[in-house]
């Protein structure tokens, strides 16, 4: 039986390849995800280890609690007098002091040099201690006072050389500095899109507003002293605001935030690989079911010759195992290409990632192969079990079919129960309080999985009515797309041929361009008229009484519609693959619309001013000097900034914010307790809380509580007001205090946003005045309220576009599923197609019949998928206050059109294959 199974696979190479495509694509995304994230992790590890080369220990600032690395909460600096104390220790051989921060390099165009979302790093360098320098000098010299060295990537892309002058902006206004040299980051081949700027220590302290302060001291132990002895000696003299770690521990600490992000990023991408595999499992199961149905007489002959049911089962499972293994191996190595492509895509988008070469670990091989084989085997179990039910007598019967299973009568009920259980799990995960994060995610994942499986099984009962309803839609959608697509294809032809490629002088070629532009609308009208005329003349209510030699288009299309209803289970299974992809795409689009609309409403409710000042990338915090500059602009009535940071209260780390006394003028609060005047009365111990946080901890107006800041100072705060944030969110943290109190307890405070009210409101003169004031801060920009809403919404839309691209893979898998089903049905209906050709069906009409069947299948999957996606989005919107339920009508129309296009493309190859059948040979096909 093993030899029989392998020969069977070799005899059906095309069918096997089509069946395996879903697994290949899914495994390739899994493999590519691991290769991509492992490569990035390896590059980051090299960067962090390079930062501490020749170092035995590192002294850094110490926060009172762990803070997230969002740029708003920084470790406090320590006094630079500590350097002399450390150097005097007998265990210390060499010590080097450093400060660091964010530095914007300003290009010749006056704009900040930013490569996507990559960081802009600045730090001090010590030319006299090259063993501690992470930068390697490539050209020029190390910097002197008020000079800078920059990275070679920035110099090459922006046209700078040693000796040129460049703008540098840190905590204050732009300063012009001479470029003394070009550097690279140690031995790391690429640090992505980060910009690098190096200064002497005094210059860096001035730029970062850290006079007499240090961020780090790197230590090298004296000969004969172990790193641990060095650490123990240093720890005895450290102030409370500093701590010492070994070089390895400090590198691991620096990499912690990056590691957490990469872990999330890996999981995020693997989810979409799992979705593609899940969709691919439907393709495999459907393909094997069709193949087994076509091989009924083959299996019956085996049973007649003495093969047992178990041997037949093992034969089919072995075929699936070999198919899955080959597909997994192909997907594994295709993942390398996907990882390389992702690196290039990120580079093209300006988000260059660190890369030291692709990393292909053993874990990637094991996981990719195991997942691919396991998914294929699980998908083959039901078709394999069906194969064992073929009776020996079927070998002598013409057109024998597999007998239905004993549980077939309960298929609809079982599908409905699976769907109900899935919905119940999703509802429980969303609305039951007290669930851990793991249990919540498990309930949601299993629930959605059961919903998809249940709907895929139940869809067979919906196929007949949906196919009938989709029939006219399929007819006219194909017609409309044909009318629209043909002139679009002709437009480049005319413009290029007559304009660019045409012979003659320039006026003649320009005339060709104009002629092409004029002829295309005329061509559009002609094609539309011809198509409508053809439609009207070929529309027949039923089959003609006598065949005139050539069948009309109406019967050919009618047969396509009937074929989609002939086997509801097959059509439903094929449509299910597209259903899953479109359900997820619809859910994402609906949630995206539901996030953007409440956010815009929240801005309108909170922001009562005229302008907002934000970073060029819309999310980075800005130094207070930016707000001070715009506050001095003539005509500014009020300017209020929102500081951002982290605090700790009631044993948990929370986001905190700070506002000044101008806040009531430009910001509105929905007060539960207190009033706008509460913002002016915060003083040194006042706090404003959001209502959820106050309720969680039993706080009310006048209540007192303690909050620890990152410097370790505990503030005793009194509740001066409680507000209800709008559904779309707000820029305020759980606790909001006064700006002076915040600045006194948080090092290097930064503004999240600055809001302004100006005389005359939004005018061209006011906008120009603000832009002039911000010319010395190129990383900041002034926006009107509408511009601010649009810019902030763009980040959500960018994320949605990423999700659409990733979900497109599942749609691509479903496209191959439709292709596979159509190709297999062409094999199955070979004699039928031969008969139709014999009685007059033309090749064009065969193609139209197959295409019509494909579009109907795609429309069924689209309709169920869109409705299912809306339902899932409705459940999520009902649970999350930040999201409202908003139907993205325009996008849903696009999804429906895409479904028709998928159906048309999926039918191209099967239709051509069916049209090329020889009628005489087809009539003799067994």
UniProtKB/TrEMBL annotation:
<feature type="transmembrane region" description="Helical">
    <location>
        <begin position="268"/>
        <end position="292"/>
    </location>
</feature>
<feature type="transmembrane region" description="Helical">
    <location>
        <begin position="358"/>
        <end position="379"/>
    </location>
</feature>
<feature type="transmembrane region" description="Helical">
    <location>
        <begin position="890"/>
        <end position="909"/>
    </location>
</feature>
<feature type="transmembrane region" description="Helical">
    <location>
        <begin position="802"/>
        <end position="827"/>
    </location>
</feature>
<feature type="transmembrane region" description="Helical">
    <location>
        <begin position="412"/>
        <end position="432"/>
    </location>
</feature>
<feature type="domain" description="MacB-like periplasmic core">
    <location>
        <begin position="571"/>
        <end position="767"/>
    </location>
</feature>
<keyword id="KW-1003">Cell membrane</keyword>
<dbReference type="Pfam" id="PF02687">
    <property type="entry name" value="FtsX"/>
</dbReference>
<feature type="transmembrane region" description="Helical">
    <location>
        <begin position="473"/>
        <end position="495"/>
    </location>
</feature>
<dbReference type="InterPro" id="IPR025857">
    <property type="entry name" value="MacB_PCD"/>
</dbReference>
<feature type="transmembrane region" description="Helical">
    <location>
        <begin position="438"/>
        <end position="461"/>
    </location>
</feature>
<feature type="transmembrane region" description="Helical">
    <location>
        <begin position="510"/>
        <end position="532"/>
    </location>
</feature>
<feature type="domain" description="ABC3 transporter permease C-terminal">
    <location>
        <begin position="805"/>
        <end position="919"/>
    </location>
</feature>
<dbReference type="InterPro" id="IPR050250">
    <property type="entry name" value="Macrolide_Exporter_MacB"/>
</dbReference>
<comment type="similarity">
    <text>Belongs to the ABC-4 integral membrane protein family.</text>
</comment>
<keyword id="KW-0812">Transmembrane</keyword>
<feature type="transmembrane region" description="Helical">
    <location>
        <begin position="854"/>
        <end position="878"/>
    </location>
</feature>
<keyword id="KW-1133">Transmembrane helix</keyword>
<keyword id="KW-0472">Membrane</keyword>
<dbReference type="InterPro" id="IPR003838">
    <property type="entry name" value="ABC3_permease_C"/>
</dbReference>
<feature type="transmembrane region" description="Helical">
    <location>
        <begin position="575"/>
        <end position="596"/>
    </location>
</feature>
<feature type="transmembrane region" description="Helical">
    <location>
        <begin position="312"/>
        <end position="338"/>
    </location>
</feature>
<protein>
    <submittedName>
        <fullName>ABC transporter permease</fullName>
    </submittedName>
</protein>
<dbReference type="Pfam" id="PF12704">
    <property type="entry name" value="MacB_PCD"/>
</dbReference>
<feature type="domain" description="MacB-like periplasmic core">
    <location>
        <begin position="16"/>
        <end position="236"/>
    </location>
</feature>
<feature type="domain" description="ABC3 transporter permease C-terminal">
    <location>
        <begin position="271"/>
        <end position="392"/>
    </location>
</feature>
């Amino acid at each position: 039986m093993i030899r029989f199974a392998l020969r069977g696979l070799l005899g059906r190479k095309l069918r096997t390849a089509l069946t395996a495509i879903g697994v290949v694509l899914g495994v390739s995304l899994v493999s590519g995800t691991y290769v991509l994230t492992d490569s990035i992790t390896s590059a980051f590890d090299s960067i962090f280890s390079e930062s501490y080369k020749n170092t035995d220990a590192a002294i850094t600032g110490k926060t009172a609690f762990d803070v997230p690395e969002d740029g708003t909460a920084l470790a406090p600096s320590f006094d630079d007098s500590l350097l002399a104390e450390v150097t005097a220790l007998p265990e210390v051989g060499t010590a080097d002091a450093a400060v660091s921060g964010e530095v914007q390099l300003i290009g010749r165009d006056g704009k900040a040099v930013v490569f996507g979302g990559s960081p802009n790093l600045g730090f001090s360098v010590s030319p006299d201690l090259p063993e501690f320098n992470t930068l390697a000098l490539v050209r020029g010299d190390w910097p002197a006072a008020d000079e800078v060295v920059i990275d070679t990537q920035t110099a090459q892309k922006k046209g700078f050389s040693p000796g040129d002058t460049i703008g540098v902006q840190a905590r204050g206004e732009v300063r012009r500095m001479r470029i003394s040299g070009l550097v690279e980051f140690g031995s790391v081949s690429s640090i992505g899109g980060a910009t690098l700027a190096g200064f002497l220590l005094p210059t860096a302290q001035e730029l970062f507003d850290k006079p007499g302060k240090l961020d780090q001291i790197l230590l090298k132990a004296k000969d004969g002293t172990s790193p641990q002895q060095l650490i123990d000696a240093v720890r005895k003299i450290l102030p409370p605001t500093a701590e010492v770690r070994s070089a390895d521990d400090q590198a691991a600490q620096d990499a912690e935030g990056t590691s957490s992000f990469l872990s999330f990023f890996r999981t995020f991408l693997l989810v979409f690989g799992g979705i593609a595999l899940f969709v691919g499992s439907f393709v495999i199961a459907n393909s094997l079911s069709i193949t087994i149905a076509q091989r009924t007489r083959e299996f019956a002959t085996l049973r007649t010759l003495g093969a047992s049911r178990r041997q037949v089962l093992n034969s089919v499972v072995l075929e699936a195992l070999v198919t899955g293994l080959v597909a997994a191996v192909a997907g594994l190595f295709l993942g390398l290409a996907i990882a390389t492509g992702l690196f290039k895509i990120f580079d093209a988008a300006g988000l260059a990632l660190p890369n030291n070469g692709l990393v292909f670990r053993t874990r990637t091989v094991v996981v990719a192969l195991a997942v691919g084989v396991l998914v294929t085997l699980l998908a083959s179990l039901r078709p394999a079990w069906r194969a064992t039910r073929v009776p020996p007598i079927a070998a002598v019967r013409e057109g024998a079919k597999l007998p239905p299973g004993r549980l077939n009568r309960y298929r609809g009920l079982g599908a409905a129960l699976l769907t109900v259980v899935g919905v119940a799990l999703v509802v429980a995960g969303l609305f039951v309080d007290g669930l851990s994060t793991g249990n919540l995610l498990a309930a949601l994942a299993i629930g959605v999985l059961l919903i998809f499986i249940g709907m895929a099984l139940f869809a067979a009962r919906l196929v007949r009515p949906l196919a009938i309803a989709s029939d006219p839609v399929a007819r006219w959608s194909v017609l409309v797309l044909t009318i629209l697509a043909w002139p679009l294809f002709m437009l480049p032809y005319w413009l290029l041929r007559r304009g660019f490629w045409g012979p003659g002088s320039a006026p003649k070629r320009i005339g060709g361009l104009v002629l092409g532009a004029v002829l295309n609308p005329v061509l559009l009208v002609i094609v539309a008229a011809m198509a409508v005329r053809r439609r009207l003349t070929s529309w027949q209510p039923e089959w003609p009484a006598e065949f005139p030699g050539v069948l009309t288009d109406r019967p050919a299309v009618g047969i396509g519609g009937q074929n989609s209803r002939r086997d509801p289970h097959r059509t439903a299974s094929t449509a299910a693959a597209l259903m899953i992809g479109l359900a997820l795409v619809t859910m994402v689009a609906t949630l995206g619309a539901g996030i953007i609309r409440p956010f815009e409403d929240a801005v309108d409710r909170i922001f009562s001013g005229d302008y907002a000042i934000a970073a060029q990338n819309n999310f980075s915090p800005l130094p207070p000097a930016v707000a001070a500059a715009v506050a001095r602009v003539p005509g500014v009535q009020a300017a209020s900034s929102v500081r951002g940071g982290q605090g700790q209260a009631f044993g948990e780390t929370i986001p905190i914010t700070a506002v000044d006394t101008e806040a009531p003028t430009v910001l509105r609060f929905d007060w539960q307790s207190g009033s706008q005047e509460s913002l002016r009365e915060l003083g040194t111990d006042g706090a404003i809380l959001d209502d959820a946080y106050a309720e969680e901890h039993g706080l009310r107006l006048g209540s007192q509580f303690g909050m620890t800041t990152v410097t370790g100072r505990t503030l005793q705060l009194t509740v001066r007001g409680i507000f209800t944030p709008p559904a779309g969110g707000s820029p305020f943290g759980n606790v909001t205090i006064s700006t002076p109190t915040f600045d006194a307890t948080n090092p290097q405070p930064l503004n999240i946003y600055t809001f302004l009210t100006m005389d005359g409101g939004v005018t061209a003169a006011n906008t120009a005045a603000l832009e002039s004031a911000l010319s010395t801060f190129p990383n900041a920009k002034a926006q009107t309220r509408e511009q601010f809403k649009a810019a902030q919404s763009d980040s959500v839309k960018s994320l949605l576009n990423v999700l659409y691209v990733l979900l497109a893979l599942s749609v691509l898998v479903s496209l191959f599923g439709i292709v596979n089903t159509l190709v297999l049905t062409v094999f199955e209906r070979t004699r039928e197609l031969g008969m139709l050709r014999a009685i007059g069906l033309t090749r064009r009409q065969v193609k139209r019949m197959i295409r019509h069947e494909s579009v109907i299948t795609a429309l069924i999957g689209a309709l169920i998928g869109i409705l299912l996606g809306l339902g899932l989005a409705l459940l999520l919107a009902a649970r999350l206050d930040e999201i409202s339920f908003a139907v993205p009508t325009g996008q849903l129309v696009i999804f429906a059109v895409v479904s028709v296009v998928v159906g048309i493309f999926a039918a191209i190859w099967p239709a051509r294959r069916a049209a090329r059948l020889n009628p005489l040979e087809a009539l003799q096909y067994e």
